[in-house]
Design brief:
heterodimer, A: 393 residues, alpha/beta, six-stranded mixed β-sheet, four-stranded mixed β-sheet, B: 341 residues, 32% helix
């Protein structure tokens, strides 16, 4: 009987020095806890065939993936240095109190990871490591499912459907505004992922897209929202009954020049046309000039004869009657509002704070004071994941 | 709970057009249509009726408003009800202005009038209930006016304009819809494909008309203004990278160029790497100086005005613009090169 023991160098640890430590806390649903500096939210997933749950290559959306229901990993990190990287925004998840109505995570068991970065390290290296650890933890947490019987199995497959039903597609915008504002497609920044292009909608649900985008907290899309994407799930559900699901197009948000915005809009419309889409829902990531990308894409789709509905958040002073959208084209005549991020959420004093005791404005996170919707992670996300909306009064 | 009711001279029984010059008057209890309104109120009593002639209000708006607001403050009602004014423009305007002013002072206020009455647009934060165009609509209007007034007096938070039956005031409020945004998007899209286009948010944008061209740029004083977050290196005044609360003015000290290492951008809405390699890419001082030397631009204004136009509500940005424009006008500036990012 022979046994082999293979030895590898310590370098394989990667660069552990970028993170000094991580605190792990498991918080039951509905706890009176405020979680601050939240970078991402991830659903625990693992693949029985041993392939990675958040692959950097290959193809997601095939075979089987196991998910742990009702559990979310929240990764938290306060970047070091007096000067904040660009303007990463305070990102809060309240597991209790009035803010709990703005998140699906309050109803789940939260595994909160609080990273302590090494002060000497750059933000990009720190972020890369934190993202990798958070995804690995999410994968590890799902490991017990490998030895258990599933409570339910859903099958995502697009069978041939009645040709008289309208063909519709999802067009999902993914931010890439440079370091710390990047969504990843198979581990590659959205700007380097060959977008716009069509993907199988199941790839989106199966961990192909992960979040490294820490812009406007309320208006951004954490990994969890791709894994459980409501738009794609709704299209699958309705496929063959009220519509034909023609496919999903990914495109970059924050194209960096007027020309590249216009070109990307036209290419996205062309890809949607190649899918045979009669209609398309365009979703949005973050705010500012990513809204211009969406508007130009809406126009390009309409000009290509593809009827378009756009999902957007509003940004307006609740006491003013000024315009509510950052940008707009007349073709955007069908808009879903995911709420006004400037409205305040009632003051609440949490019993505990995880993630960091001070908010980015320097004030105690435990202090009861009204906090704007814009600081609540994903609260007004523009993929339509939640029910928040705004209306005329 | 107490209500105050506002009427014009005619509905208050003070007389017709010949009494339109009547100044503000306080009458006790409900008067005229106030009697019908009283029966439509729940748990609310009309303790006083304020009346004013339509001409008097139109010709002495400030005095009339001041007098009426004084009377209102004395009574401190839970709600102010004005009208119904139906299609009457002067009366509707007076109802709206009083209701708007009372709402600003924290008195829940509601008026009633026809949708084309100019008062609808003058009611500010006050509520306006739609009515028919003439007094024949009184019987239909009073129950709806009374219901909304009762709700306001009770302090109940009102639902949407559509649900509660008032004209939308232009404000937006969050609410939890009964379906996710994704489900609503699919419904909207299928509706649009079937020929019925609906939207949850309108695209009303402020459109700024381009001004007339500067007649002679070679004689003009030209200022540089930017929202690119361009500040002296180190950001001495801590201009925020997002949601700026104000703007700054920096003397250029006769500089020929915005040198890298002396200026930088703290704007949080784009990757500033290329901008900081050469801050003239944000604010083209080098080029404008060259034009100045060539005589194509009269003179460059001594100060740079800067802010971060990132995450700034339109109402705040409008204020920045007005403040900066005021200073530039006082300095005799005739043209501005405004760089945005």
């Amino acid at each position: 009987m022979a046994w082999e023991l293979a030895t590898f160098p310590a370098d394989l640890l990667g660069e552990p020095e970028t993170l000094e430590s991580v605190e792990v806390e498991i918080v039951p649903s509905g706890s009176p806890v405020r979680v601050t500096h939240v970078l991402d939210a991830v659903e625990p997933r693992i693949r029985p065939d041993g392939r990675p749950a958040f692959p950097n290559g290959g193809r997601a959306g095939e075979g089987r993936t196991n998910r742990l229901d009702g559990v979310v990993v929240l990764s938290c990190l306060d970047f070091p240095g007096e000067e904040r990287p660009l303007h990463e925004q305070e990102s809060i998840v309240d597991l209790g109190g009035p803010g709990a109505a703005l998140t699906p995570f309050a109803d789940m068991t939260a595994v909160v990871l609080t990273f302590r970065p090494a002060a000497a390290e750059g933000h990009v290296a720190i972020d890369a490591h934190a993202r990798s650890v958070a995804l690995s933890v999410a994968e590890e947490l799902a490991r017990p499912t490998l030895d258990a019987e599933p409570a339910e199995i859903e099958r995502f497959e697009l069978a041939a459907a009645d040709e008289s039903l309208p063909a519709v597609a999802a067009l999902i915008q993914l931010s890439d505004l440079g370091p710390l504002y990047i969504q990843y497609v198979y581990g590659a920044p959205a700007g380097d992922a060959g977008l716009p292009r069509a993907v199988d909608p199941a790839e989106v649900l199966d961990g192909a897209i992960t979040c490294g985008e820490y812009h406007w907290a309320a208006m951004r899309n954490p990994t969890f929202f791709f894994q459980r994407n409501e738009l794609i799930r709704t299209f699958y559900r309705e496929h063959g009954s009220t519509l034909r699901f023609a496919g999903t197009v990914l495109m970059r948000g924050y194209e960096q020049s007027a020309d590249s915005k216009q070109r990307a809009a036209e290419r996205a419309a062309r890809v949607a046309g190649e899918l045979g889409a009669d209609g398309i829902v365009i979703t949005t990531d973050a705010g500012g000039n990513s809204h211009t990308d969406v508007m130009l894409t809406c126009r390009a789709c309409e000009q290509a004869g593809i009827r378009t509905t756009v999902v957007l958040a509003e940004e307006t002073d609740p006491e003013s009657t000024k315009p509510i959208l950052t940008d707009w084209v007349p073709e955007a005549d069908s808009i879903v509002s995911t709420g006004n991020v400037e409205e305040l959420v009632e003051a609440w004093a949490p019993e505990r704070v995880l993630g960091g005791d001070l908010l980015l404005d320097g004030r105690p996170a435990a202090e009861a004071r009204p906090i704007p919707v814009r600081n609540y992670l994903g609260a007004a996300n523009q993929m339509g994941q939640l029910a928040l909306s705004a209306r005329a009064v | 709970m107490k209500a105050v009711h506002y009427l014009n001279q005619f509905f208050a029984g003070l007389g017709g057009e010949e009494q339109a010059g009547t100044p503000p008057t306080r009458l006790e209890g409900p008067v005229g249509p106030g009697r019908g309104l009283q029966t439509a109120l729940e748990g609310v009593e009309i303790v006083a009726t304020l009346a004013c002639g339509d001409d008097y209000f139109a010709e002495h708006e400030q005095e009339a408003l001041a007098a009426l607001l004084d009377m209102l403050a004395e009574i401190a009602p839970d709600v102010l009800v004005a009208g119904p004014a139906f299609g009457s423009g002067r009366y509707g305007y007076a109802c709206a202005r009083l209701a708007a002013a009372a709402a600003e002072r924290g008195v829940p206020s509601v008026a009633a009038m026809h949708e084309e009455n100019p008062g609808v647009a003058a009611a500010g934060a006050a509520f306006v209930v739609p009515t028919a165009v003439n007094v024949a609509g009184m019987r239909d209007a009073l129950p709806r006016l009374g219901a909304l007034a009762s709700a306001l007096a009770s302090g109940r938070e009102l639902g949407s304009a559509e649900e509660e039956g008032y004209f939308a005031r232009g404000f937006r409020r969050n609410y939890a819809a009964d379906k996710t945004g994704a489900e609503r998007a699919v419904e909207l899209l299928l509706g649009k494909l079937a020929g019925e286009t609906r939207t949850e948010a309108g695209g009303d944008l402020d459109r700024v008309e381009p001004p007339a061209a500067v007649a002679d740029l070679s004689a003009a004083l030209v200022a540089l203004v930017t929202e690119a977050g361009c500040v002296p290196q180190g950001n001495p005044d801590r201009l925020p990278s997002v949601r700026a609360q104000g703007w700054f003015r920096y003397d250029l000290d006769g500089a020929e160029t915005l040198a890298s290492g002396r200026y930088e951008s703290v704007h949080g809405g784009f990757d500033v790497t290329l901008a900081n390699e050469d801050p003239n890419r944000l604010v083209p001082l080098d080029t404008v100086r060259a034009l100045e030397r060539a005589g194509r631009v009269g003179r460059v204004h001594e100060s740079l005005y800067t802010t971060t136009g990132n995450g700034t509500p339109v109402v705040v940005a409008t204020r920045f613009g007005q403040e900066i424009a005021g200073q530039l006008r006082d300095a005799g500036v005739q043209a501005v090169l405004l760089s945005g990012t």
